[in-house]
Predict the 3D structure of the following.
Amino acid sequence: MGRVVITGAGTINPLGADVPATLAAMREGRCGIGPLEIRDIERLAVQIGGQVKGYREEDHFNRQQIALYDRFTQFTLLAAQQAVAQAGIAFGDALGLRSGVVLGTSGGGLNTQDENYRVVYEEGKNRVHPFIVPKLMNNAAAGHVSMEYGLRGPSFTVATACASSNHAMGLAFQMIRSGMATVMLTGGSEAMLCFGGIKAWEGLRVMSKDACRPFSANRNGMVQGEGAAVYVFEDHDHARARGAEILAEVAGFAMTSDAADIVMPSAQGAERAMRGAMQDAGLNPEDVGYINAHGTGTAANDKTECAAVAHAFGAHADRLMISSTKSMHGHLIGGTGAVELLACIMALREGVIAPTIGYEEPDPECALDVVPNVARQARVGAVLSNAFAFGGFNAVLALRAV
Amino acid sequence: MDVQDRVIAIIAEQALLDVADVTPESSLDDLGIDSLGLVESIFAIEEAFDISVPFNANDPGASGFDISSVAAIVAAVEALVREKDLVRS
């Protein structure tokens, strides 16, 4: 089986419009969550979120492209462009046939859906723009990425709610490792911060109106965000042969199902996914220095996740660091695992551990080192990234320093 | 039907019980209503009374909407209805 490495990364999210800006924000513990600027906000009970502020589509795309690209596709393409540029890779005919794209998203073109439902139901119009279907479909972003870079190998889009990105990246990793592909563009994207997208979530009563405080005793729910991150995953030997700079190694991946409740997480399912990822990567628990948590800031997730970590790591659980960057960028739903991988890469390459900001009160049920409020310098050789989703789907990635 | 009767009817429907089995002292747990059943009940109450219930599942105590028993829920709904009527009058 081959080894898989990361040779490029790109992002646009509430913390910044590229990787350097995002990592700087994470280092500084900056918060990208604030008052939402969207239509009909007076009718929303939740009025905060992690928006990509000051974004103008006309700065990046022409009219023809805008007609086809929902916001989630736009974010994806911008991130992909950065990743491919960093990787310095050209997808000629031969490589193009051996390369594909697997992305995660939950809502796909939800803004397009929301706007056009408004047009037909609220405004009573009887025609909509002809491109609505290819614009809102979940695989639109992946389709356009494959077209942009001539990727003619295996491609698809994964929807597993909040674990979509991790599942996508895990599958891309397995596809290269098994020899099915040489290079895969992978990651995820979400742009659900529209009236319908937020109103749908309100009823579940798990969103906070004031802040995202993962692991804090006074946490009171999740805060939604939007954004994308895309990576170039590449066969290790192929990357070395062309002298590519390697950011990190994707060492292992595991996915499990709780088969318990449609929304409440299970510690056993989460524990099995973490153990599985370490086993797949050939890692001992003591080798893992940092975990980027799922850490949504809900009462349920955070305590369940900490229990799962305690069981999976035993005594070592007290020595590792576990932080939730959702405290800074919000919960990017289908795109969250992708953006969070940046914190993992920063940990491995720069020896900087992103903090859990907004942390105010220790919770005895979350008694791990959550790197409260201030980033920390620490050398770590291997890290995990957790995603535990509605439906009881768990996906954990293990990365190793090179 | 007064507020209490209507709230009990909603909870009974959610719990798949007869209204006679939903006593004021019962807790939602007693009635077999789980966390999803709770948010559905709150939705049904909001729809029935045209009120907004400030309930957060992560911090049940914070909102002042007491869900500890059927009687507590009835009292909380009565208060929200009074508040709504005051605002609209």
Notes: Chain B has three helices and no strands. Chain B has a mean pLDDT of 92. The CA atoms of residues 55 and 63 of chain B lie 6 Å apart. Helices of chain B lie at 3-15, 35-49, 70-88.
